[in-house]
Write a structure and sequence with these properties.
Chain A is built from 2 helices and 8 strands; from the N terminus they run ββββββββαα. By secondary structure, chain A is α+β, with helices and mostly antiparallel strands. The chains are: A alpha+beta (about 130), B alpha/beta (about 290).
Amino acid sequence: MADKLHFNLVSPERQLMSADVDEVDIPGTEGWIGVLPNHAPLMTTLAPGMLRIKNGAEESRIFVRGGFAEISPSGLTILAEEAMPAAELDAAAIAQRIKDAEEDFADADTDEKKLNAQQGLDRLKELQAAL
Amino acid sequence: MTNLKDLKTRIGSVKSTQKITKAKQMVAAAKLRRAEERATDARPYTERMEMVLANLAAGSEGNPNAPKLLAGTGKQETHLLIVATADKGLCGGFNSSIVRLAREHITRLQGEGKKIKIIAVGRKGDDQLKRLYGNLIIWKTNFLEVKQIGFAQASEIAEKVLFMFDAGEFDVATLFYGKFKNVMTQTPTPQQIIPAIAPEGVEAPDLRGAVYDYEPDEAEILTALLPRYVGVQIFRALLENVASEQAASMTAMDNATRNAGEMIEKLNLQYNRARQAQITTELIEIIAGAEAL
């Protein structure tokens, strides 16, 4: 059997997914990361975006907003602040999040925070365009 | 005569009390199952989070630039106590035992000359605390309007706490809640959340000799992680509290139902005796009357 990546997706309220898959693409704050089995240990923060989970011919997409990804030899764990399957995501939900992000941006008092908020906002807008 | 009627009324009232306690017990049992499930569902996130934090904390030990949420402010002057209790009663000593634990801490800390601030989460705890420490309670909240406690409620409290910490309003924050062990046992537990203590017994994952890469760097991840960690700890405490409350309520109501049953039995016996005594007296009177003729 070919190597599989053990993938866990957990949100504060429940464990959303625990499976062995081929590849997961995650939206890191500094760019997309494609995680294959036996990836080097890595820890990164997440930007709002779609997780792409590939297993054989199947591909599923899950929207995550904020959180962390941790890659260790035992697999990939995503601690998402909020997560929902792409199918449940609609334009209204995205619009609401964009509004929240715009408020964050307005509230940001340092350049760094502003930058972070701006990045989050950009990602969301990208997502809205893609939908 | 009046005695008989009194007894009957009392039996009636104990019976209706028993009905209430029985109903409450069943409601608690149903809610307990759900609450327990939610507490278990939330566990993987907390555990992972603790693992990641333990990992990062070990790396930044002794670093003078470590975030204050981890290293502390360097003082221990002002203590913030977050006392989480239930909003409703009818759950035995659950609320009182948490408040008692908090009170012991307050007395001890005050004895050491520290300043105390209290955040009261849950109505019952607030009711009990404000009598003694009304002026120390700086903020209070309850979930009477909330059907199911979610992460949003926990974040709200966490935000408040973090805001105060940033403003330098306290040095150490401790959370008090009822830890859910099983249906019979719930232990009131104090847990220090600021500065964050990496939980014991959490092992870092085996990296087989490799080291973590960080994106962005370690310090930034730690800065992003710590506030979230506070939120997660509060969320966990709230969920455990709900489960504990329902378990305590179930046990308390079970006892109450049983006590009411015993009382009804006793009263019934008394009632029957009194009735028999009355009949006997009446018979004696009739016989005595007949004999007198």
